[in-house]
Amino acid sequence: GAGVSQSPRYKVAKRGQDVALRCDPISGHVSLFWYQQALGQGPEFLTYFQNEAQLDKSGLPSDRFFAERPEGSVSTLKIQRTQQEDSAVYLCASSYVRGPSNYGYTFGSGTRLTVV
Amino acid sequence: AQSVTQPDIHITVSEGASLELRCNYSYGATPYLFWYVQSPGQGLQLLLKYFSGDTLVQGIKGFEAEFKRSQSSFNLRKPSVHWSDAAEYFCACMEYGNKLVFGAGTILRVKS
To answer: How many angstroms separate the CA of residue A47 from the nearest CA in chain B?
Structure first.
């Protein structure tokens, strides 16, 4: 597609519910990132994939967070047993190069998760 | 670990006035630096980037930024602000492993 697509755009979850957030990167993009943006804050790194390999998951806040990219394209961020502090916008970004990019990364519009 | 500081949470400028948004970073080596803009409900759009070379970089929408190693700064500037520039602006530094470290953002308001 023309850009990075994220779905759903909005998600309301009851506390304790599991959620799955989807990211469709730009076709052919090798690198894929997930960021969490709390209200009034800058985005914070969660995890990084190069093709299907998850090379860095140091930013995942707890073992309730899990990300996958099984075929090296679409990625899913799953949050189990959601808690109120998980409420945030979850941003996905992709890039076609493996190393530092001269083009930065292309970000999706994000999924706004509200846990009630 | 790297950190990025944007000292101004909010800035208000008059339409047509000049703009400077401040950004300071902490990193030992030459950093890769970025400025992104985010409109409400939208993702982040890259305005400009600095990797090496000329310390004054030009970006889209008439923005520019200057890398000053001695001050650990990468301030964003625009000579004449338009009402459509109202948005939130994020400075970011690329850390080892390709991940971006963002500042907390500066909200720009433009008054007519």
So the answer is: 9
CATH number of B3-111: 2.60.40.10
Residue A90 has pLDDT above 70, yes or no: yes
Locate the domains of chain A by residue range: 5-115
Give the closest-approach CA distance of B22 to chain A in angstroms: 15
Q: Are A105 and A85 in contact, with CB atoms under 8 Å apart?
A: no
Give the range among A65-74, B25-34, B36-45, B62-71 with minimum mean pLDDT: B25-34
- pLDDT tens column, B29-54: 778 899 999 998 788 999 999 988 88
For B103, the closest of A42, A59, A99 (CB atoms) is A42
| pLDDT band of A105, cuts 50, 70, 90 | confident
Among A103, A109, A111, A114, the residue to mutate for chain B (most B Cβ within 10 A): A109
**Rounded CA separation A44/A35 (Å):** 5
Let me know if domain A5-115 sits in CATH 2.60.40.10.
Answer: yes
Q: Would you kindly state where each structural domain of chain B is located, as residue ranges?
A: 3-111
A56 touches chain B (CB under 8 A): yes
All residues of chain B having their beta carbon less than 8 Å from the beta carbon of residue A104 are 34, 36, 46, 49
Min Cα distance B83 → chain A (Å) is: 22
- Taking alpha carbons only, the member of B69, B61, B64, B65 closest to residue B87 is B61
